[in-house]
Write a structure and sequence with these properties.
- There is one protein chain.
- The protein is an all-alpha fold.
- The protein has six helices and two strands; from the N terminus they run H-E-E-H-H-H-H-H.
Amino acid sequence: MMAAYRRIEELRAQRALLMACHDGLAGFGHAGKLRGVAGPIGLLARLSLSIGARTALLRLGFRVLGWGLLIGIVYATLSGIEQRPSVPWLVPNIERSLAFLVTAASFAIGYPRQRPVIFAVGLGAVALLELAQGWTPTRHGAVQDALVKAAGLGLGLLLVLALERFRRYALLS
């Protein structure tokens, strides 16, 4: 019963978001103006979203960010060494760890009920990406790299959990 009630609340929040977007888009004229305020800023100004709708929109943004970062990690891992993006002033191990930390945190915020799955799939992705580097002529997988990436993945999930716990504690105080 509780799961059904939560699902009904999620559907209500999604409906409110869609209705608010519909109302905002209905205000656009032929010139792309929103009753005096131009462009997307006008749309956002007109949208008065409920907390549930804001949460759904925020989660959607983090989901898109997480998937985009994952695609970037796959590209950086499997492309040739000369095409690999890097930050010149960062140590490569810290760079790898931060990439997985931010990606895991994005997924953890975007999919809050799937965190154990995110961790398991993330570990699998780390292992597969390291193995796949063996098929790229200019790259090679290493156990140390896999451990650094897995540590970043775990730290990203732990960071989100700690921030949520701190936020709950701060709200109760």
